[in-house]
Write a structure and sequence with these properties.
The protein is an alpha/beta fold and 340 residues long. 33% of the residues lie in helices and 15% in strands. The protein binds NADP nicotinamide-adenine-dinucleotide phosphate. NADP nicotinamide-adenine-dinucleotide phosphate (NAP) binds next to helix 1, strand 5 and strand 7.
Length: 340
């Protein structure tokens, strides 16, 4: 199958490129050429900005991909451009979305109030307010102010001439994770902290995470299986509480310390998480398992080991964005421990 990937040089995208190439597909990636990735030799590259795609019709026609995988559609405009560029050329567009489309995400952030039942299914209610990051000055991964996966999904799924597929991703971890999701825990473990304290409500909270290679496998299935046409899928690890997740990370890291859940009254004010942890945020993954035969191709033990190995040699350069419990304020942590 001929597959064109928009993006494909960074974290999740590169893992998808490798997987699709390994199972024998003809892969071309489209990116600006600012990010240099180690690609399999047979993978072709087209350089350009995604905003230029509609003017590149003849080149895209010549390539004639069967499926276009848009890894990096963040805005409605991004999605409109992709659909315009590939209408009459490709048979299907697969777009990468996020679990942040759900109303549960806004309840978690305290922007909407009624708790949404979990696990989330692909039919769970979506956020009522659009543009979740518009008022946040420092947006993760330089997301634009008009970032909105709900609108991306709507555009990709509403064109009768060019059908779509959507994959909603969880919080993805693994080697090359630009957000270093495991780092605040691992740093404490590697600095031989005797205990890691979790605010009680957060210790019990369940979120959705996924290992990059498993997520890439799910995306590859959705790209290559025509049964995915017109469908929306989740992918995620099986959910566990944050305390249990931390225990598993500790085990994989060879840490001898303890995870301690701390009642609110023992915590300093700046440790108050800006989340409504009454709202869990994990997803049911039955649909992708039943319809596309998804299963984890990497065990969680191996996934954590690979991630830890990478985090240990690639610590984030600056940590000014960490706040509250993520601050490495060991004096305060020790004081809390003595009070418990
Ligand atoms: N990380 C998570 O936990 C998480 C969670 C939920 C959803 N997601 C979704 O996952 C996707 C990101 O995955 P990824 O980081 O692995 O992406 P990726 O497929 O590796 O794509 C990133 C690459 O896209 C290229 N690019 C960026 N802007 C471009 C532009 N204007 N025109 C052409 N190419 C451009 C860049 O290469 P050049 O610099 O060479 O252009 C960049 O390296 C996003 O849709 C995100 O919303 C991620």
């Amino acid at each position: 199958m001929k597959i064109l990937i928009i993006g494909g040089t960074n974290f999740i995208g590169l893992s998808v490129v490798n997987r699709l190439h390994a199972i024998g597909h003809e892969v071309t990636i489209f990116h600006r050429g600012k990010t240099v990735a180690e690609l399999p030799i047979a993978v072709k590259e087209i350089k350009g900005d995604r905003t230029q795609l509609p003017e590149m019709k003849s080149e895209l026609q010549y390539l004639s991909p069967d499926v276009v995988l848009d890894m990096i559609a963040y805005t409605e405009q991004d999605a409109l451009i992709t659909m315009k560029a590939f209408k009459g050329i490709a048979q299907r567009v697969v777009a990468i979305s996020s679990m942040d489309v759900y109303r549960a995400y806004n309840v978690l952030l305290g922007k909407e109030s009624d708790i949404v039942p979990v696990p989330l299914t692909e039919d769970s209610p979506l956020r009522q307010q659009l543009y979740p990051f518009k008022d946040i000055p420092q947006r993760a991964l330089n997301a634009p102010a008009d970032y909105e996966k709900i609108l991306v999904e709507r555009v990709v799924m509403s064109d009768a001439d060019l059908p779509g597929t959507i994959i909603r991703l969880p919080m993805v971890y693994g080697p090359k994770d630009p957000l270093h999701r495991l780092f605040p825990y691992l740093k404490r473990m590697d600095e031989n902290r005797p205990a890691i304290l979790l605010p009680e409500n957060f210790a019990q909270w369940r979120g959705c995470y996924g290992y990059v290679e498993n997520v890439a496998y799910a995306i590859a299935l959705a790209v290559t299986n025509p049964q995915a046409t017109g469908r929306i899928y989740h992918v995620a690890d099986l959910p566990v509480s944050e305390a249990e997740r931390l225990n598993r990370i500790g085990k994989a890291a060879g840490w001898q310390g303890k995870v301690i859940s701390v009642p609110k009254q023992h915590l300093p004010a700046n440790w108050n998480l800006p989340f409504n942890t009454e709202q869990a945020w994990f997803a049911d993954t039955t649909r992708i398992r039943q319809e596309l035969g998804y299963r984890e191709v990497v065990t969680q033990e191996e996934a954590l080991k690979q991630t830890i190995d990478w985090e240990r040699t690639n610590s984030p350069p600056e940590m000014t964005q960490w706040t509250g419990w993520e601050l490495f304020d060991y004096a305060t942590e020790d004081e809390i421990l003595t009070q418990l």
